[in-house]
Amino acid sequence: MKSFPETFIWGTATASYQIEGGAHEEGRGESIWDRFSRQPGKVYQQENGKIACDHYHRYPEDVQLMSELGIKSYRFSFAWPRLFPEEGKFNPEGLNFYKRLLDELEAKGITPTATIYHWDLPTWLQDKGGWTNREIVDHFVTYAKVLFETFGDRIKNWITHNEPWCAAFLGHALGVHAPGHTDWNEALIVSHHLLLSHGKVVELYRSMELNGQIGITLNLSPAVPATNDSMDKDAAWRLDGFANRWFLDPIFKGKYPEDMMDTYSRKFGPLNFLKEGDLGVIGKPIDFLGVNYYSHNSISHNDDDPVFQAKPINETENVTDMGWGIHPESLYHLLKRIQSDYTNLPLYITENGAAFPDEVENGKIEDNDRIRYLHDHFVAAHRFIEEGGNLKGYYVWSLMDNFEWAFGYSKRFGIIYVDYETLERTPKESYKWYQNIIKTNQID
Ligand code: FCB
User: 67 is in which domain, residue-wise?
Assistant: First the structure.
């Protein structure tokens, strides 16, 4: 049996657009995901988050399920369009839902961890250029300020952004996430403004002396060379630059990686979105790093790829329902690498989990694949801790099945099953398994 430290934080994670619903409640405005999901061909079966899991109304039941699960902390995100539904308008009613949610969490002794931005940008801001417009940084600070003023005494763990790589590149270069653009130059600008807004909000938080901790969550995906060939190794290094170093370096080293600056400026022209002083802001000390880990990418050199001459190999065996290869050992190596190359700050796995095609049989969901996946990743995390690694907590993605972005409701990541007809929640076997892990604080 492997024991986790007594203070280890077991949790689960969700995001506003993926679970809340309540699309028009208490003055909520429109988000880019409401708009994106109306466009034909963008989201599986043109599904959307209008109702989602109806967490907006069913949160007491959901918090009850969290409490029975035994989690110490719950990671959720705020919906920006609830607070700022239109240009120039602050909607105080949009705070009410979160007050109720926090009441409920506090009553059950569950510590909140809040993400400020998990991709649901108000459309009025998108209409002003969204994250491509540098002015958004000020809007983000205004929004964060309201959250800190309202909840700074109740929420002690803040995450500025969730996975800026996805918001920037899936949203603006690859076009598969809202707002669905396919312009690399835009994506780079967006990545920079996301990081800059992160730094500004860290500065704001410090200035308010709120006595909590603030960090950022990155989706980090090791780029593993497909062979020992130096061409593949170089290709993997480039994709590592794309996925990981482009975010880790400015945050922890106060600069963008030079090889990537070269690549990007050669391909897309001068990086003149980068202004003097920006990197100093982006590199402002944080209190922890949130790591979202799902899989690694096995990379080979490929001349067909116009930007990096590198491509991930499509895995077909031992994959989840997303087609993502299952590689728990890469979680261990990733954590080691963060520690050796970047920081000794506390780390949290802010997301890890797996989609599988779950089915209810006789009222039960026997999701053994998910149990195995979580088990093996917990073991990898334990190994890191055992060797002295500073990993403080682990949030399973996700508490319940939900709107999986472009995949709509077709991918189930939850440890609680949601019947989208009746909205009934049924804990899966993985929930019960996790309950026992939390209770014993051990894994075999
Ligand atoms: C991450 C997102 C999260 C969820 C999982 C499966 O990229 O942060 O919202 O969709 O993937």
Answer: 2-443
